[in-house]
């Protein structure tokens, strides 16, 4: 794989809206949906993939959630690369993790969200 791969939940309007916006940041990634990808071949946990966005690095490593987003940003131009590093820095990482968890839990309430976006508990 030459470029990293961002995977989004095709059943979630908020996720798909985000997937359409992320390339505008100038990141160097490919994008697909969790439902269209061969998750086993990519080493992606299918249960985790619909709760936390996965990003598969070109070398096969997989990040989820806020760390996936940070890795995606690090493929972009300078200001976004710095933001990606900041997200994973020691003081910001716990806050970014909680923020991502809140967004994921409330994605059905966010712009583009629909009732089908709600995570099942």
Sum up the structure in keywords.
121 residues; alpha+beta; four-stranded mixed β-sheet; 40% helix
Entry summary:
This protein has 121 residues and is α+β, with helices and mostly antiparallel strands.
Q: Which stretches are low in confidence, meaning pLDDT under 50 for 5 or more residues running?
A: none
For the termini, the CA-CA separation is: 34 Å
Spatial order of the strands forming the largest sheet: 2-1-3-4
Count the E strands.
4
Structural class: alpha+beta
Oligomer, anyone?
single chain
| Mean of pLDDT | 94
Helix run count:
6
The helix fraction, in percent, is 40-55%
Radius of gyration: 14 Å
Strand content: 5-15%
Q: Secondary-structure element sequence? A: EHEHHEEHHH
Largest sheet: 4 strands, mixed
Q: What would the principal axes of the Cα set say about the shape? A: globular
Pfam family, one: DCC1-like
Protein name: DUF393 domain-containing protein
Structural commentary:
This protein is α+β, with helices and mostly antiparallel strands and 121 residues long. 40% of the residues lie in helices and 13% in strands. It is built from six helices and four strands; from the N terminus they run E-H-E-H-H-E-E-H-H-H. Strands 2-1-3-4 form a four-stranded mixed sheet. Strand 1, helix 1 and strand 2 form a beta-alpha-beta unit. Helix 4 packs antiparallel against helix 5. The longest helix has 13 residues.
């Amino acid at each position: 794989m030459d470029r990293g791969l961002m995977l989004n939940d095709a059943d979630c309007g908020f996720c798909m809206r985000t997937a359409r916006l992320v390339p505008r940041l100038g990141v160097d990634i490919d994008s697909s949906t969790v439902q269209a990808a061969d998750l086993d071949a990519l080493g992606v946990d299918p249960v985790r993939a619909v709760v936390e966005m996965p990003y598969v690095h070109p070398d096969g490593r997989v990040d989820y959630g806020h760390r996936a987003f940070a890795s995606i940003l690090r493929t972009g131009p300078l200001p976004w690369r710095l933001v990606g590093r900041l997200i994973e820095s020691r003081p910001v990482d716990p806050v970014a993790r909680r923020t991502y968890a809140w967004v994921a839990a409330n994605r059905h309430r966010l712009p583009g969200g629909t009732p089908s976006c709600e995570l099942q508990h």
